[in-house]
Amino acid sequence: MPLAADLMLSDLKQRYAARAATDAFTRLYDDREFGHMFSVLHQCLNQHFIDINGRAKRLFGNLAVRRVGSVTWGNSW
After folding, report:
1. What is the rounded distance in angstroms from the CA atom of residue 6 to the CA atom of residue 10?
2. Exposed end of the chain (fewer CB within 10 Å): N or C?
């Protein structure tokens, strides 16, 4: 009987196998077993952070950037 961890890993592999990743992310991972899964996850996370930063920019504009001397804290957008 398969272990629970093996079943969960199999489910994850199937879930990510159905999704495509661009070459920019695919070439970063050469692991035969997990490379595709990592590239899809990496691409999804990048898009997630781009979306978050875009929402912050729309909501707060330049208030999200605070300059102290020559150092910029936060995103400079």
Report:
1. 6
2. N
